[in-house]
Amino acid sequence: MARQLSAGLAKLGMALKSKAWQEAAPRNLTPTQAQILTILQAQATPARLSIVAERLSVTLPTASDAVATLERKGLVAKTRAEDDARAVAITLTPKGKREAWRVASWPDFLSAAVEVLAGDERAMFMKVLTKMIRTLQDRGDIPVSGMCVTCTHFRANVYPNTPETPHHCMLVDAPFGDRALRIECPEHTPAAPQQAEQAWRRFAGDDEALWDSMMDEEDSEDSASAEEPAAGSAQEFTEPPSGRSTNDEGRP
């Protein structure tokens, strides 16, 4: 099942990439430049170049070249960082803000697919996405984002008797549910490692065992593939490798 889910997500990724190029070209932007605009739009304060590079998972020189191009187009401006006058921060110009709003709407074509999901399905999907993104972030496969589950203001499952709104945000002092979880919050403040781990375990709850079993299943599939005999070998048509069984069709 894990492989099929991965294949489905890959198709969504290809659709997003294709849409990004279709929308970017007429506006004289590259997808990378468009991503920088959305990153800056989500920032409550001007962002340093290192933050932009980290969010994009690119090198500083690559990020610097893209920012320089955006600056020439009048979409971003460089200022002094508020916490360090020696450092340079990047902010959107009025023209850049307008363009950022247009860019932010590019993934909206997926909304039609999301709309077919029932309310409880959307809430579950949001929780699953949060878990997958968090796992990929921990492995260093994708940039770290400002998610609720890694924020110091997040309190997971503190209202077990109200399943629609079990969590609490200390910043706004209000309860909320899985469907209101954020993947990228401008007010995100990273929690200390121990606090983040505790919040994650409380958030995962009973679902953590299911999530772990899915990861184990994927590892098992990888191991099984590595043990497959070469095509045409006698072993393939006589008996399965030691420790494995076959179904009625002879497939492992």
String of helices and strands: HHEHHEEHHHEEEHHH
In quaternary terms, these chains amount to: single chain
Number of strands: 6
| Unreliable residue runs | 229-252
Beta fraction of the residues?
Answer: 5-15%
Summarize the topology.
Elements: H1 2-24, H2 31-42, E1 47-48, H3 49-56, H4 60-72, E2 76-81, E3 84-92, H5 94-104, H6 111-115, H7 119-138, E4 154-155, E5 167-169, E6 174-176, H8 193-204, H9 207-227, H10 234-238
Antiparallel strand pairs: 1-3, 2-3, 4-5, 5-6
Helix pairs in contact: 2-5, 3-4
Plain-language structure description:
- Among the domains are: about 25-105, Arc Repressor Mutant, subunit A, CATH 1.10.10.10; about 115-210, no CATH class.
- Helix content is about 50%, strand content about 10%.
- The chain has 10 helices and 6 strands.
- The chain has helices at about 1-25, 30-40, 50-55, 60-70, 95-105, 110-115, 120-140, 195-205, 205-225, 235-240, and strands at about 45-50, 75-80, 85-90, 155, 165-170, 175.
- Strands 1-3-2 form a 3-stranded antiparallel beta sheet. It has a 3-stranded antiparallel beta sheet with strand order 4-5-6, with no helix packed on it.
- β2 (about 75-80) and β3 form a beta hairpin.
- α2 (about 30-40) packs across α5 (about 95-105) and α3 (about 50-55) crosses α4 (about 60-70).
- About 15% of the residues are buried.
What's a concise summary of this model?
The protein is 52% helix and 10% strand. With 252 residues, it is mainly alpha-helical.
